[in-house]
Write a structure and sequence with these properties.
Oligomer: single chain
Mean pLDDT: 89
Number of helices: 9
Distance between the termini: 28 Å
Helix content: over 70%
Strand order of the largest sheet: 1-2
Largest sheet: 2 strands, antiparallel
Length: 220
């Protein structure tokens, strides 16, 4: 999935950076479900992708920290505030309906990005955030506002800082295009976390929390 994202919809002129990094949708939920082990899964996923794209091992070991911290920072905040990833749904049918719309919004984002329809791509971004805000208004507000702020926005920004920062530090891109690449990285992560990340959280969190594999702390 990670490789598909960066090959099909890259942020020119940077291999490995996508305007719609689909794989990012799973990194935060993985961390909230499986603790540091989920963060390590994200790290390894990014590392393998970097090697596949031909980057050097020293660079990849640093660059992959972007996906590690994309999950770890939300994990740290959630555990510190003692917030669970999601509570039982109050209005299940309506929330499932909203999540179907989020899925369609993600498809629209992908099509707009592939066809270079910038205005449509921006519109799907706004729609996705709006749908998530509606979900927060009908479900537990603390849970979903925390997800929007921490699991979507903070996670995306942290990932962008580490990822694009590594690209600059290792000379893979010039500092002059930092803002362009950073914007593309963060913008894409926000969209997939707000849409697919939310869908995964709604659908799988109630099941995983009740299972033996759920990590309540950082490691166990």
């Amino acid at each position: 999935m990670a490789i598909w994202a960066v090959v099909l919809a890259p942020v020119a002129p940077v291999p490995g950076v996508s305007g719609l990094y689909i794989a990012a949708a799973i990194y935060v939920p993985l961390a909230l479900w499986f603790g540091v082990w989920g963060c390590l899964a994200g790290y390894l996923s990014c590392a393998f992708m970097g090697l596949y794209l031909g980057y050097s091992l020293p660079f990849v070991l640093v660059w992959a920290l972007a996906d590690f911290f994309e999950g770890f920072v939300p994990l740290l905040i959630y555990r510190s505030l003692k917030i669970k990833p999601a509570l039982e749904l109050r209005r299940q049918k309506l929330t499932y309906g909203l999540n179907m719309l989020l899925g369609l919004d993600l498809v629209g984002s992908a099509i707009a990005l592939i066809l270079s329809l910038t205005s449509v791509f921006v519109a799907t971004f706004i729609v996705g955030i709006a749908l998530l805000i509606v979900q927060a208004s009908i479900e537990d507000r603390k849970t979903w506002i925390t997800w929007l702020i921490v699991g979507v926005f903070v996670a995306s920004i942290v990932s962008g800082v580490f990822g694009v920062g590594a690209l600059v530090a290792f000379g893979n891109i010039h500092l002059s295009i930092f803002s362009t690449v950073f914007f593309g990285w963060v913008f894409g992560d926000i969209i997939v976390l707000a849409t697919l990340g939310t869908i995964l959280t709604v659908a799988l969190t109630p099941i995983i929390i009740k299972s033996r594999v759920y990590v309540r702390g950082f490691f166990s």
